[in-house]
Amino acid sequence: MITRVRLLVAFLVVTILASCGPGPTAVPSQPAASASASAGPTKGGVLRIGYGAEVDNLNAFTSQFLTDIELTMVEGLIVSNDKNEYIPVLAKQVPTVANGLVKTRSDGKLELTWPLQQGVMWHDQVHEFTADDVCFTWKYIVGTGSEVYNRNSYLPISDCRVQDKYTAVMVWDKPSAIYNGLFEAVLPKYMLEGKDIVKYDGYNRSPVGTGPFIFVEWKSGEYVRVKRNPNYWRGKDYPYVDEIVFRFIPDINTRLNAVKSGEVDFAQMTPTQVKDVKDLANYNLTLVQQNSWQHFDMSIKTERGAKIFGDKSVRQALFMLIDKKTIVDGVLEGTVQVADTVAPTTSPYYNPNVKKYPYDPTAAKKLLDDAGWKVGADGIREKAGEKLSLTALLSSADAIGKLYWQVIQQNMKAAGVDIKIDTKDAAARSQVWRSGQWEVQISRWVLPADPSVTGLYSCKGSNNMTGFCDPVMDEQMIKSDEELDPAKRKALLFKAQELLAENAFSLPVYYNVNPIVTSKKLVNFKASGTNLGSFWNVYEWYLGK
Fold first, then answer.
1. Any idea what the Cα angle at residue 151 is, between residues 149 and 154, rounded to 5°?
2. What sections of 54-159 are H helices per DSSP?
3. Residue 8 — φ and ψ, nearest 5°?
4. Which tens digit of pLDDT belongs to each residue from 334-386?
5. What's the pTM?
6. How far apart are CA 340 and CA 343, in angstroms?
7. Pairing state between β 440-446 and 283-298
């Protein structure tokens, strides 16, 4: 499962900072084959996707999965492309000071004007997309209980008004460095007004959008199917493909066999399967460097968690019992890179000088001894009648997780820490994670180009499911979100990274790589490592001959 914080971007800088992260690396299996763009797009056909875990829902704002499936049907004001740039979709332009769409009012507040595409119809072909839908979406997001993964990023918007049918104007109370990547989806007001959107399966399991494909069917445990939108607003030529079937194949070996047998045209593999797919005759392999890292977390939202993990020494000891190098070089076969902080090494905001936690069982044992956790007769440490026996939350679809937890279990057991694994299906695991009612886990954040992590680690962050809170770190993160000077923002983010590591709130383990195999017939696939995934231009994809 991919846990996401999907959106946090850059604001009000006339020259917007794009990601400096590495782009996707194409690894063709053999000289380019049958599909040829020079022959022109081919219409028709069914695109078969070998997808991983079954998604929790199809609401782009509340799902804790990447929005691959949703982006075939649902569009927003913007999307991120293969170059980590934010480009307009339902908006005609992204507001900036330079284009006159961002203005400072006499009261110091900012007004952002969003000009919208005209003549765009929702899938019902009765209702037109308008500024009313944009402001309705904003009102839902900032409402209490919306469960929107990046709700905090929208809170500086104090008002959204409909200037006219095709123009929405938003008022920002203060400068924000995270605006031009918001509204990656827009909700249909006509359908959802008056509904409890979080619980409304009429949308969450069968979304209505303006996108190139229309929802057809979600067969639980098997697939989601979408069909071509014959009235797509970009023109009658788009999209090229007739249908897309997202077939859920959580078992990685079954997914690999589906690729080898030609049952799917597109599949995400694991780093350990790169050797198995790089030379397949009918497929290309792309190693997508993601804006993403795997992280070990603890929750203090339960009484037991607060009692154990409230002690910084215990947190640091657990960090030093995780052998990152063995996980990277052994389990992941050297296909990824060890991570020590939350910014990619190629980012201008990467701080190489944070406190690091190398594998050091001797030092870890001493920390636990000094903290009063003594080894008992059964080999498990205990303190005041409490055993240091921890339960790790894991998705049943996380095949790699099962392997690295075996390494961690062995290392921690040798130091007197017992780890049990609680394996749940992906949707159930997501629900437990959101509740905070868990003890330890390793999961993934996938971010956009911008390095803001306020929503993850601030005291009131919408994705802070651990409960850890440091007001000093909050101040650095919040100031960085409001700072428009890149140099000053860098200093603030450097300090935030240092505090996160020193506090031992979360341990980055490794940076993620997403290996994707695609049929050589598939044309115009342009991989993206951002939080919005690689389906950003699906309307242009076609199956060549």
1. 140
2. 131-142
3. -170, 100
4. 888 999 999 888 777 899 999 999 999 999 999 999 999 999 999 999 999 99
5. 0.71
6. 9
7. antiparallel
